Amino acid sequence: MLTERVPQVYRSSIAAWVVPGFPVSAVLFETCQVRLLPRIQIDCFMKKCRILIVSVIILATACNNDPIAKLPEFEILLEDSTTIFNSKNIPNGIPVLLIQFSADCKECQEETSEILANIDFFKNTNIYFITYEPFERMKVFISHYKLNNYHNVTVGYDYSKFLPAHFKMHSTPLVAVYDKRKNLKVLYQGKTTIEKLKKSVSSYQ
Total structural domains in the chain? Predict the structure, then answer.
């Protein structure tokens, strides 16, 4: 079953007010305008406005602290069994796909085959296949799909099982789509269609 998750920071209607260049105070001021009211009513009304402004700031800050809203920092062990790759070295500027997979998972195999069949479309996307299952299975997976032949594909062993803990999901495949600024845009639990995945990536380039 396919489910789709959007991080909290993009779900909040309050947070939608607080975006770069958007005149939040102007909107609130417009909401708070009164005409020909006694001074005491005006003071009371403006006090409520100030409370509203503070509430919006607090709620927006809480939304921006959503733990999955940004690409997390974690480490994976690469195929050579000695190189540790840290996600902080993932460059900005192009979208990122994080794919939690299992080598024996049929849907993971299908998802991988479809991505590779459309690799020209994803040439400007950094793709990371990550597994927390046995290291030897990962090596077989890499060999079978010849993943070392693709410059924008990295495969790694999540030896600390960081990703399932981070997303609170152990299922595979799990596909996280990040924009070029490493903001999480959508999270697919279960296999998604290649058309939907391509649309998600193209929307955030």
Answer: 2
